[in-house]
Amino acid sequence: MHAFGVAIRRPLGKAGSPYAGQILDKIGRTTGWTYGKVTGTCVDVNQAGSDITLLGQDIVAAGSGGGDSGSPVFYWHGGNEVTLYGLLWGGSSDLFVFSNMYNIEKELGNLGVR
Q1: What global pTM score does this model have?
Q2: Cβ–Cβ < 8 Å for 40, 90
Q3: Which range marks the domain in which residue 89 is found?
Q4: 106 contacts: CB under 8 Å, gap ≥ 6
Q5: Which Gene Ontology molecular-function terms are recorded (predicted)?
Q6: Residues 61-100: pLDDT tens digits?
Q7: What single DSSP character describes residue 47?
């Protein structure tokens, strides 16, 4: 993956759940590379316009926009090394919400990172 002049070639693996205050990044189709502090962990989030509630979601104080859904959420170690934390599915101009890898794999089974 190339983003803003950085070639991300070496995922170091995947992490379970983030902690409050941790800095996480995402690279989205619409808003590009943004990052911020984790402001909420294991939060139950109501999906706008529906009666669906997603359990155990995580929130980061960094912007996202329509088209960013599915973006990788990761910790950047610098250089070309990252640890995958999850997948973005919603947000606004000042935050994004993502499902962490622990919960994704709990539903879908083990997903290899290569």
Answers
A1: 0.86
A2: no
A3: 2-108
A4: none
A5: serine-type peptidase activity
A6: 999 999 999 999 999 988 888 889 999 999 999 999 999 9
A7: P
